[in-house]
Amino acid sequence: xxxxxxxxxxxxxxxxxxxxxxxxxxxxxxxxxxxxxxxxxxxxxxxxxxxxxxxxxxxxxxxxxxxxxxxxxxxxxxxxxxxxxxxxxxxxxxxxxxxxxxxxxxxxxxxxxxxxxxxxxxxxxxxxxxxxxxxxxxxxxxxxxxxxxxxxxxxxxxxxxxxxxxxxxxxxxxxxxxxxxxxxxxxxxxxxxxxxxxxxxxxxxxxxxxxxxxxxxxxxxxxxxxxxxxxxxxxxxxxxxxxxxxxxxxxxxxxxxxxxxxxxxxxxxxxxxxxxxxxxxxxxxxxxxxxxxxxxxxxxxxxxxxxxxxxxxxxxxxxxxxxxxxxxxxxxxxxxxxxxxxxxxxxxxxxxxxxxxxxxxxxx
Length: 364
What we know:
single chain; alpha/beta; 3-stranded antiparallel sheet; globular
């Protein structure tokens, strides 16, 4: 048990909003632009108008804390094999019918936020538990960015890195504010059509692409991309070709891309689970179009989960689910065989955390 040094406030002021002519207040955090009267919540559930401002109602509160392998985020080129202290809150600013974490992200019950921790407390826990990083995950950290930013700053003070697992659905100014505190990110690129984003997610594709371009051109954040493939919705050859060609042209060939398997959940229980053959097909398309590092996820596929040198095709990191096996990188993160550098953030050797998942209890 970890003793809390303080109880954080649950209600916290926010910056990104403005007053409309009709008296409503518009939230300017994400493209949804919720327009609120007093007492109303945005679609995200955790940002609410109180009097003449919009506040975050989940600051310092969480649905739970857990130590995961970094590969679970998924990040394959960021401190492989290391443990990451992970947590989320409640709510989301998208409305994905296929949500795989719907019990957290779709929760509109404050009771789901039964755990609390102040930023400095979380930083101390990460150090105590020997976690190399902390991840804002399970639901989208953009909606609790004030809390995430404070935690990230506290972690940086003690040498712990910060990871955002996000759909990247955010407006221009808060995008800069949010990512300035992140060391790594996994961006959930839901699909590559506006139809899918509008029909299945209740959002838009364009702002997500803007986030990817911003990360690539304007920051030093290490980022990877994940797309959950849903049979008959976003898994066609044409869409895979369009997506991977766009990535290579606009972001470059070195951004790792993960194709993960869907399982029926939330409001899409009528769809079949994604087959390994579909994931393999998508991976082959990506590689053919110039993506140098493409992975399959949520399935047992050692070949699709391992990292290969794009220059000599040597297997550099062998993965079996979240466990690292073979490791053929030198101390500089280069291929032992041909000395080509592997893009990413690496320590001198492989981590040994494996597939462990350990819950962390906080007390006040």
